[in-house]
Design a protein that fits this description.
single chain, SH3 type barrels, 16% helix
Length: 705
């Protein structure tokens, strides 16, 4: 504690403060909770612990607490209360005129006249004032070398009046008379002398009840490791002691978010900061330095600024798709790669950003005359000219065309050396024909590029529009490991301006990385620790220009993009019944035509007739499980059963396998008659006959042996 300094309630101490003497350092002697929760005061600090240090930097008058002396009831009035108050006369007498006038406002002349009485006789320069004489103070006169005097007016009998000067040191039994002057709350709170007096309401039912008025301030203070400036009311039941002289050079660590660090002056950098609150578990960043930002970790903050960055994504392949933030200070080299388009609408979007687009078809597309969609074949090259509205059938049954948006493309023919002049003319005429591709048409294209120039990242942004497909052909030599090298293709999605803070870790102070302020949520505080290098000799810093981010970062970037882009067009409406019937009839007609033409061109060839096995034959195959054979029926004859001849001997004689005597195959309910197919010598067809008993014999033999 602070030695023998006086301990005061917070309310009394703040009420006695003058804003000119701020700041003040207070130490809490006793702290209690106020209304149980810190959220009941909109997040203001409402509880202090014993020994806490508070640095008061400002006070602001909030309201006025009114205490009814007759019943000790308390209530609050706003500072802009329009009512007025009158002074309540004190029952206790004053022993001297100076004591009575000292409790008046500072500007005494502004609240005159002031009426009082004296219950004892007074003799002043051969002038005697009787007891209970009513005196009205007109002014206070002060002369050099003389005692201050009060000029008073005395009302005599029968209308006679006089003025008399009474020294301030005059002693007696003085009482204030009821005064008619009134004061506002603002006037009472700005005068320390009036705040110590008692008042009563003017023109109210309870106007005679004396009230003790005391101000309630909102205290602006800072504390160690507390967020921003604390604001709490002075009415907290906390006792404090003034320790300003003991802690003149006290430094409070104030938590700062990355946005607040960005608002610090440039003179604050470089500095050492401590992590008070680490990043969230689901961060938008995915870099190697992110796990190092734990609570208590020191950071070297080298500076702040804005950095132009490009968001890039890898093409999904064997590895998972990756996303990167690439600074335009990246010194690697890129080479453009042809872009792929999966619809005509994607061609349209690319054409709006970069005219003069040439593509090649990567998948066949059949023509649909009813829809007005032309046929495209693999390898066909097109030059996209413009977008305009054209009239197409679009499956209308009434024969009327519909107006749809389409890309007008011109086919490109590669010159052949062996063509004749007539063929060249025909190709030139075909080349002049233009194709209309509706925007809702689904087809696959690949961009046709003729250059192999190497670009820097900043040059790509100047000469082309986003998105662009590129490949890193030369790594950034300033990076220890370039994560972009080795990726088959990178799609540069778009550019952005990111406010960043350049920082490094104590184990590698020269290896800097850029923290995107708007993409990372954490808090730090500036410390008084010195930098590990001389202020005039900073080391040579190496800055990472590639930061890996998560897929969530990519989606956040897409949300912040241009939302005014129109969605892809839908196919035009059509009569589904008519179109389906027409399609069916067309399919039937095409099938009939194709069958007739096929029969005419290719006559039917003779086919081999192969007999299909019966159910009994299926039951003998090894593919199906057979139920266990039943036991032979019990007989009374005890003689052994006759011995059957060996199978191979019977087979030699008859050529037909005998059935097993112990296993009787179930007879099928349905018998299939096998007709012998007689060969016709005169026939042109050569049919192969199958000997069914021979086939059954072979299967049984395989099954039994």
């Amino acid at each position: 504690m602070a030695g023998t300094a006086s301990v005061l309630p917070l309310q009394d101490y703040i009420a006695s403060l003058d804003k000119i003497c701020l700041p003040k350092v207070l130490q809490v002697c006793s702290g209690v909770y106020f209304q149980g929760s810190i959220y009941e005061l909109s997040g203001c600090e409402v509880c202090f612990s014993n020994g806490d240090l508070i640095k008061v930097i400002d006070i602001e008058l909030l309201s006025v607490s009114c205490e009814d002396i007759s019943n000790n009831e308390k209530f609050e009035l706003p500072i802009d209360h329009t009512g007025v108050f009158k002074l309540a006369s004190d029952e206790m007498p004053y022993t001297s005129l100076e004591e009575m006038l000292s409790l008046r406002p500072v500007a005494l002349n502004s609240c005159l006249p002031f009426i009082f009485t004296c219950h004892s006789k007074m003799t002043i320069d051969n002038f005697t004032l009787g007891a209970d004489t009513v005196l009205t103070v007109l002014s206070v006169e002060q002369h050099e070398g003389e005692e201050s005097q009060v000029r008073c007016h005395v009302q005599g009998q029968q209308g006679a009046s006089a003025e008399v000067c009474i020294p301030l040191s005059s002693r007696g039994e003085f009482y204030e008379c009821k005064s008619e002057e009134s004061f506002s709350l603002q006037e009472i709170m700005t005068s320390p002398l009036l705040r110590s007096r008692r008042f009563h309401f003017d023109k109210r039912a309870m106007s005679e009840r004396p009230l003790l008025l005391s101000p309630i301030y909102q205290v602006h203070a800072i504390m160690h490791l507390r967020k921003n400036v604390l604001k709490f009311p002075s009415s907290l039941e906390v006792e404090v002691v003034d320790v300003t002289e003991l802690f003149k050079d006290l430094h409070f660590d104030i938590p700062l978010t990355l946005t607040e660090v960005l608002s610090q002056p440039d003179e604050s950098f470089p500095t050492v900061a401590e992590v008070l609150e680490g990043p969230e578990s689901r961060s938008l960043l995915k870099c190697n330095w992110l796990p190092e930002l734990k609570i208590g970790q020191l950071l070297f903050l080298h500076g702040k600024g804005t950095s132009a960055m490009v968001l890039a994504s890898s093409i999904k392949g064997r590895k998972a798709k990756q996303y990167f933030l690439i600074s335009q200070e990246y010194n690697g080299r890129f080479r453009r790669r042809p872009r792929e388009f999966n619809s005509v609408y994607e061609l349209y979007v690319a054409l709006m950003k970069s005219p003069g687009l040439r593509v090649s078809v990567t998948r066949n597309s059949e023509d649909e005359e009813e829809e007005g969609v032309p046929a495209l074949s693999v390898g066909e090259q097109l030059e996209v000219l413009r977008c305009e509205r054209v009239w197409l059938p679009c499956g209308a049954s009434d024969g009327q065309n519909q107006s749809v948006e389409a890309l007008i493309c011109q086919p490109l023919q590669e010159p052949d050396e062996g063509d004749d002049d007539e063929e060249d003319e025909v190709k030139q005429e075909e080349q002049k024909e233009e194709l209309a591709l509706p925007l809702h048409m689904q087809c696959h294209f690949v961009e046709k590029l003729t250059e192999s120039k190497k670009y820097r990242l900043r040059d790509l942004g100047k000469e082309f529009t986003w998105p662009q497909d590129v490949k890193v052909v030369a790594r950034d030599a300033e990076l220890e490991s370039d994560p972009l090298v080795g990726l088959a293709c990178l799609r540069l999605e778009g550019a952005m301006i990111e406010p960043t803070i350049k920082a490094s870790l104590p184990n590698r102070p020269e290896h800097c990385f850029q923290i995107p302020v708007q993409r990372l949520s954490m808090s730090v505080c500036f410390t008084q620790d010195p930098l590990p290098w001389p202020s005039d000799q900073p080391p040579k810093f190496q800055v990472d220009t590639v930061t890996e981010v998560t897929e969530a970062f990519y989606y956040e970037f897409c949300k912040q993009g241009d939302s005014s882009e129109s969605p892809p067009p839908r196919p035009p409406k059509r009569n589904m019944s008519s179109s389906s019937s027409s399609k069916k009839t067309s399919k039937k007609s095409t099938k009939k035509k194709s069958s007739k033409t096929d029969n005419a061109k290719h006559p039917p060839t003779p086919t081999r007739q192969i007999c299909t096995p019966t159910k009994e034959f299926d039951s003998l195959t090894l593919c199906k499980k057979r139920p266990p054979a039943p036991l032979p029926p019990a007989t009374l004859d005890a003689s052994p059963p006759p011995i059957a001849p060996r199978k191979h001997e019977v087979e030699r004689r008859s050529g037909i396998a005998l059935p097993n005597t112990y296993v009787k195959a179930p007879e099928s309910k349905k018998t299939v008659m096998l007709h012998d197919v007689s060969t016709d010598v005169d026939s042109d067809h050569d049919y192969e006959t199958v000997d069914m008993p021979e086939m059954v014999r072979k299967v049984q033999e395989n099954f039994l042996f």
